[in-house]
Protein 1
Amino acid sequence: MEHITLAVYILLLAGGAAGTAGLAVMKIRTGSAIPGKLLVIHLVFYGGLGLSLVYYYLNAVLGLAPATPAMGILAVVSSLIQAGLYLMAFIFLREIAPGTQRFRILYRICRIFCLALGAVSGFAALFYGMVLLGLPWKTWPIPSAVTYSLVGLTMLLLGLYCILTPLGKEVPAVVFLIRGWGIGFLLFVPLSAAEWAFKQYGTIAVGPLSLDYLFFCICSGVSIAAAFRSLRARPAPAGEIAVSDEAARRFGFTVRECSMVPMIARGLSNKEIAAELGISPATVRSHLYNLYQKAGVRSRIELLNTLKE
């Protein structure tokens, strides 16, 4: 059983390495700051996964008890990694700050929860450090249900924000990346709840592997898929037309419609736009019709001239 678990850990690490490479490709290809921030989050989570592998190997294979100094040090470092994850999420949110008042409240709540979880994780590192040094305060004061609830609520808010917030200025591959990570955040919630129930009531043995690792697999897969999308996309020429937030609000353009304008400026056909966005040519024609109607124009050239003004 130990060898099977180690093999699963190694597969997770291999998938994480592929996801890391995908985010690096995205950063280079798109020039957006968002893949870079997600790359840091991914690497920190990747480090935590590697630490879990070391912990499992020392405990299950070598037989070290959790109370030994080596295991205590790992617990402290693991808590610090978790604190770093939530602080990086706090910083990442600044890259997709809302351009409209509609999402500003959700944005602020997400950042507050990220800071709160970072503080809880830092407190956990302090607690494990005190236990390691043999100081008083032997019992963790925060119930596990509270911690799991706080984590689940934070992930739920992050997922909703990443999926719903407008991203008109970003290229389609980056939009796909953020939306995909948002879905991963949402899926984390039931996985985390199930794991807490398994540990609490013991009806099913989860074992040393965490259900949360499926979240890591999802985000790695999304990162790889987004990297392939960015590689398929044609590089944008200098002076490419993009829709400003002001123009998007004035004309009432949707995020998808905004993302099509740079492709129109590059001279892509409806079929080529459909291939880049992963939609049908009929859907592209529908979006193009909506762009014309909202901007009060009749052709692509008129649309681009209107947006230049």
Note: The chain has two domains: 2-232, 245-308.
Protein 2
Amino acid sequence: MLNKLKTALSFAPTVEFVDYEDGLLTVKCKKALSFKNTSVKLKTSYGTILALVLVESYDASQEVYRLKLLEHDTVLDKLDIDRREHPRLPKVVRVTSQYFPGFAGTTEDISLSGVRVETTGPLEVGPDITLSIELDDPQLPPLRVSADVAWTGQKLDGKFQSGLRFVYLENELQRTIRRYIDSRLALEKKLHTLEEVDPAELM
């Protein structure tokens, strides 16, 4: 076991921890990272942590990579990161905006604080764009919200992912998004635990 750990450490590239936001690690690396599942040596103020990650995108303007943790809880515990953020729902739904290349994109995940989206081109980092999120619930109309573009980065397939932060949500809109996320997370839990699911919940 010890030999395997030493081997993993010797081959894993060293990356410098910058931030954890929108469900992704932001890191710097002197060498180019491959867009795949890989182990990295995460250099932090707490020491070096061996982490299994998926390299999601590269932000050339900031010279940072964004990584999805494949051993989420273990690494965040070691980083002592407060995880009491809004629950994030991995969900792909259509999003439209006049500020998007081609005027449309899809979400990668949704939370009460914002969304991570995929588009065919980069978004301009800056404040106050409007977008419409088409949730997969026939009882809900498209949600029209304002958001700031916090970051954008290119993925392996040439598309771009971006972190959007909601600027202001009225109380009713907050309740709608919260109910939607809670219901979908509860449904996922039922499906994973093989509990009986009402067909109406799948609509």
Note: The longest strand covers residues 47-59.
